[in-house]
Design brief:
This protein has 198 residues and is mainly α. The chain has 9 helices and 2 strands. Helix 1 packs parallel to helix 2, helix 5 runs antiparallel to helix 6 and helix 8 crosses helix 9.
């Protein structure tokens, strides 16, 4: 865990302040960012880390696509088609599969086809990494799990008298999780091309 902050919104100004604070504290050498496409975070990321490759979470992309599926009975097939794109072994294959699926849906679901053509390539940055890292770096699952744990613990308290009290609880929980990550199995070692621990 690199940092924690409390804010009432996820506006760009909060994310920019948070990212800038990490840089001020000494964060450097950032090589890859994985997140969803939240507009505030995206704008801050581009401002503070403009040259760092960005991977849009493939899981969130698959979920977002469902809003463009014209019929409920198509959802399972569309989800499988998007997974088939992301499961390609290399960038060229993924682009070819995307083109095929865009052409396939252009008549029956033109809004979906247009959305796929514009958005799915944002999930392709992972192909620039060693193949051993694709599975873990293609989604934001690691931080999503942390967010779920934060929500679970804060629901118990339900009411906080001020921001500082929430910050204390969140910081304590994140320190605990960070220690587990440091002393347990390594989720991903970016210096190695060996497959990560299971």
């Amino acid at each position: 865990m690199l940092g924690v902050s409390v804010a009432l919104s996820e506006a760009e100004v909060h994310w920019r302040t948070f990212f800038s604070s990490l840089v001020t504290r000494g964060l450097h050498g950032v090589r890859f960012i994985v997140s969803d496409a939240h507009p505030g975070m995206a704008a801050a990321r581009r401002a503070v880390f403009p040259s760092v490759p960005w991977q849009r979470c493939q899981f969130h992309l698959q979920q977002n696509a469902q809003a463009y599926v014209p019929r409920v009975d198509m959802r399972t097939v569309v989800a499988a088609d998007i997974r088939s794109i992301f499961n390609c072994s290399d960038l060229a294959s993924a682009r070819a599969r995307l083109k095929d699926r865009v052409n396939f849906y252009s008549k029956t679901a033109p809004k979906l086809a247009a959305w796929m053509e514009e958005n799915i390539p944002e999930g392709f940055a992972v192909y620039a990494l060693p193949e051993a890292h694709h599975r873990r770096m293609r989604t934001s699952n690691a931080i999503e799990r942390v967010n779920q744990e934060l929500k679970r613990r804060t629901r118990v308290a339900s009411l906080f008298p001020n921001e500082a009290s929430l910050l204390r609880l969140a910081t304590a929980l994140l320190c605990e999780l960070s220690n587990e990550w440091l002393t347990g199995k390594i989720y991903l070692n970016m210096n190695s091309t060996e497959p990560p621990c299971a």
